[in-house]
Fold each of these.
Amino acid sequence: MEPSRRAQLEAWLRYADELGLGPFYLHRVPQAAPESVRSPDSPSVTTAAETRSFAPEVSSQSTGAGAASRTPVMPPASRPAATSTFLPSLAGTSLFEERVDNDSLERIRADIGPACTRCKLHQSRKNIVFGVGSPTAELVFVGEGPGHDEDLQGEPFVGRAGKLLTQMIEAMGLRRSEVYICNVVKCRPPENRLPEKDEIATCSPYLIRQLAAIKPKVVCCLGACSAQTLLNTTQGISRYRGEWFDYRGARLIATYHPAYLLRNPGAKSDVWKDLQKIMAVLGLQPKRR
């Protein structure tokens, strides 16, 4: 095996080991797992702050192509600020990805099934929360996992954080039905904790298939968990929030989770800047009051 190919394979095997999926061969030398990073935006009980309008007053400030040109897209491997823990791709594939010809959201939902028991999250969930929105959306929002309200209704982002996300979408000049919204894991983690590595490893292939079936222009990761999953990193979101990455033909950007904004409303201005970058790529104009 060529040295470069071997190095890529070993990197993916180390990643699998961190997720508790190994060993894949005998006599392995144990690799020290990187310190886990807890997302700063995991859901918690919040106030009714989401009732305030998200977007500031719209001025004549440009959100056109010039804004996009100030933030060029680069693959993770070439970004000096975030290269140390990004893992190399293995010929553009993932060990955990299922490739299905002529895939569709309906087929992915059917493959998951109405009573999935593939990981321990099924023990306390009420509903599988698959995703909602347009199957041809140019913009996909990806969160970490369902919360209490989402578990009851079977739809992502319908609680307090979901109402704020809807305001964010409308401030961009879009309707909720025009985008697609989903999560890394499809079942609610107990007490709204972060999804664990084995749960992410089990469920994230369905997320990857969802994105491949939709083929969006832009993927917006809401919070560290979704960004870390899709970018294969353990770095905190503050290291790369608002930066562009290439993701399988789409442009990926990470921003703070709406639940984090409910607890830290001062961060809304940062998220609005990130949303304006997305709007510039999609040619959108902000909603005027």
Amino acid sequence: MSASIEHLRVRANGLDFHVAASGPPGGPQVLCLHGFPEGWMSWRPVMARLPEVRLYAPDLRGYGPMDHPRGGYDVFTLTDDVRALMVALGLDRPVLATHDWGGALGWLFAHRHSALIRHLLVVNCTHPRTLVRAALTFDHLQPLRIPWVLPFQVPWLPEAFIATPPGRRLLRWSFTVREGRPGTMDRALVDEIVGRFATSGDLRGPIQYYRAFFRTLLSKRGRAALHTLYATPITAPVTVAWGEKDGALPEAVARKSAADAGCPLDWRPLAGVGHFVDLEAPDALAAELRRVVDQRAFAPQVKSAPDSGAGSRASHALEAPPSP
């Protein structure tokens, strides 16, 4: 199974981005945001399964062959990048498909710019406000499940270590250990992703996402800006596809995201799938994205949806509680 992929150089928000594109130019538009530490190619298996959809998968700031700026890794600049990419690519209210760190940007972008997207699909990323609260309160032992966050705050050392052969082996293991069913993850694609991080400079940008967000949380001004952003409810339809065997981001915590998003969530559980849904269950993920792209998915939210098959169960709509 393969897809014809174009590789574009796109100028947006003052940087050159590499963007992979597939599908017919007149097809339904989808902008895909990858997670840590993946890159555009994590969406390649889905591209191969959706030849009728016009999919754009950029390497986000700090990833890939284009610009690696020293700064701009705060979530406000990163979501500005997303908006600028939409403009540069000529996208008109695309579906925004997101995973992991891309999912965090998707949540925040929808708070800022719901009117610019047709639908938000989040794959295994708890709403940032929900996740921070869970980490502070030890909800479901959340901080112990993401132990790399604090070590990543140390300057230069994490990226220097990961760039060594033992570090890259550990990075590869961090993918494969999180699969839902042993042996189901695309090992060749994991090796391709890990192979991109040959030097410490290749890792600096991706790790800066964690450092910049931590600094935002520690700053009074940063917390106030996030509070203001969260005060605007998301008005775009939101679907959450969730690999239920995600050990780092518990489903029980993630299901509380509706309250912080301020909107209902169409919950799509994927049984037996781990965190890296895109690398482990691309058939199931493509089925969920095809369902979202279908015009019927643009209608008002419903409380259930038919089973998409391939490891997916019936969806559940999670309602945000009424405002006090």
Amino acid sequence: MMREKAPAGLPPTLLAAEAAGSAALTRQRAMFAFLCFVWGTTWLAMKIGVTAVPPGLFCGSRWAVAGLALVGWRWLRGERIGVPARLRPRLVLVSLLMISLNGVIQLYGLRYVPAGLATVISSALTPIALTGFSVLAGQDRFTHRQAAALALGLAGILLVFGPKALTGHLGWPEVLGAGGVIAGCLFYSLGSVLARPLMRTLSPGELAALTDCVGGFLLLGASLAFEPGSRAALGGQWGWPACGAWLYLLLPGSLGATLIYFLLVRDWGVSRTAGYAFISPVVGVVAAVLMFGEQISLGEVLGMGLMLGAAGLVLRR
């Protein structure tokens, strides 16, 4: 069989550039799929962890270890580690928002609300908050396509999770827990928008390493100083479910998905990367069916279809 010839008249440099662009887009889509899978399955791991371990210690130790691992990897490869003095205040602020405050507030909230309700709040609020903060910061323009995507996504989330998560009456602990999930989501979204300008100077890998280290150690230190039971739990006698959850959140979560998130924020922008929030809940539902034999209603199937459609609108160029 003869090989198909390239279109006549196109210079080799243009063909090479098109091939490189296509390969980069394929790689970015693969990273996005990994991000959606990992962040679609982390709520269960977090719920398991915070029932056995003080949330500040559980979260701070994971991010601190992740940061040390990323910094060590860069050091072994001979890559520079550091940040210009003029960027350090913003780096500390981003670390506090994305790691320290987001982590501990959300995990304490997760102690008092069902995982389904936490998923509803996070999935619905994340793309709205990321898009809103990025528009206010002048990084994105709000378009009719984004508005349609948000409307579809919110409708889908309500169809999938609303009937289960929002039935009954919430007491004050549940209300405060839901408020914690909301606050953590807002902190993370604001930190994501503030982090993007840092990547004009810092690589995504360097930014991920530094934010994990700064945010993780700040949270770990605060936990050991003020959080009840954290010093006693420092020995790691958590039981295998909590230890397994910690490792899952550390390896594919903190080390893998966080680095990918920064890469996509740099290359795609905040509002487009936010499309993961419409896909991750679908991943969580499918995982629950496969792992625990949970049943899916027709409304949930329709809701997941709407969420995938919303993600398609967000991701389409």
